[in-house]
């Protein structure tokens, strides 16, 4: 009989926080980001992105509602840039936008029966809105950083353990599995992970995203790849013969995520042609939560 494994808990040092407060905070974000702010009337958090006018992801983040506005959980090395970008749209709005990464810590708690005492002053905790099996997310006052693990039933784990789980579940992360400024939301699975509202109306880049949704022109996706040996670290090219069909992103041992041309994957699978990275043969999978299939007509139209 296998002994039960306690939930894991880690502080994600690579995550930062941007604060958006003021009477017009919700209105400002609502007109800019891919998801519908109305979702926060019934849910504690949501996943969203800010796009370029050409419809490509500049930032992806989790949005949490607070008493005086919103907190955006974003890649730490993009937090200052996000605050600056949002401020470009502020004009005369009653909004204050600040990079507060130094005053918050971001934690993740995952695993079977993961639980927190909750209700801690200065802390916000919520199920990850992308995928429930990612577990709980915790945003806490940096002064409470040492108390965060104690307030959960998780064993402290390195960041690599969290990312190993994320990779196993097939959930991409900006800057690791897709390039900011060069990736459409569908390619980064925002349509699969509750990161885009197709009914809310206008947002920056909305026309491009809507066109991809309704014309079904998604050729590339981030998908899991599996090898029988450890995958190389780095954004290595993935090849069919000598033709590059995508790039490797995050890896954990023999599993990884890669942004691939799915039509090329389907062609290779039908022809029995190996797909490889650095000479290492790969198997390409589809995440359990996905509604698309490799080689389905709507994916290669």
Taking Cα atoms only, what radius of gyration do you get, to the nearest Å? 20 Å
> How much helicity do the residues have?
10-25%
Number of H- or I-type helical stretches: 5
Distance from N terminus to C terminus (CA atoms, Å) equals 49 Å
Plain-language structure description:
- This protein has 301 residues and is α+β, with helices and mostly antiparallel strands.
- The protein folds into 2 domains: 8-169, Gyrase A, domain 2 (2-Layer Sandwich); 216-299, Elongation Factor Tu (Ef-tu), domain 3, CATH 2.40.30.
- It contains 5 helices and 17 strands.
- It has helices at 25-30, 79-88, 159-169, 206-215, 262-271, and strands at residues 8-11, 15-21, 45-51, 57-66, 69-75, 96-99, 104-110, 123-127, 136-141, 155-156, 220-226, 237-240, 243-252, 255-261, 275-277, 280-281, 283-284.
- The strands form 3 sheets. A 7-stranded antiparallel beta sheet has the order 16-15-12-13-14-11-17. Strands 8-9-7-1-10 form a 5-stranded mixed beta sheet, covered by helices on one side. Strands 3-4-5-2-6 form a 5-stranded antiparallel beta sheet, covered by helices on one side.
- It is globular, with a radius of gyration of 20 Å.
